[in-house]
Amino acid sequence: MKLSKSFVITISRQLGAGGAFVGQELASKLNIFFADRAILRDAAKRLSTFEENLESREERLLSFWHSFLKTVPHEDVITVPSVTPALEYTDQELFDSEAEIIKKIAREHPAIILGRCGHYILRDEPNHVSVFLHANKDFRVERIQQLYNLPNDAATEMVEKSDKDRAAYCKRFTHQEWTNTANYDLSIDTSKIPLEKVVELVLQYITFRS
Known about the structure:
The chain is α/β, with parallel strands linked by helices. It contains nine helices and five strands.
């Protein structure tokens, strides 16, 4: 399948729904760039920080106290010793940096963009297909247990926290409900069909669109 230079698939996903697997498989079958770590790496360079500092910040908002510390002199908050010192960049700065990187990738070559509100950032691009992968909670918890060798309660907490964080992040920067399927071209429940078939389904959809 020959793709235009600006062709991009964005994959929004619930934790445990198989977004990374589907994205990597699509990139391999289409022979195009899978943009995940590259976005993280370039954002870290732009913000003059380390990649590991961004990993825990992506698609989630700072806590109230972290945000508060960004707005007041350090000496004014020494009465809150349990709060970690403020980081050198805000949620908005991180979002803006990653948005510019995503737009740059879309301009330069065909790519798969994983998460980071890519569906919204590239909403006006004519050669953009947005995909949302979701699944029921039990399926996702079981998959996280298997992937990370976690007990059920830890996997459940991980899924619930991720859902909450991503919903709040999307609402803040896109003013949309993250799980509203009307915001995407294609929405697939990955608990209903094998992930390999999900990849085939997306490929078929792309063929129909081209």
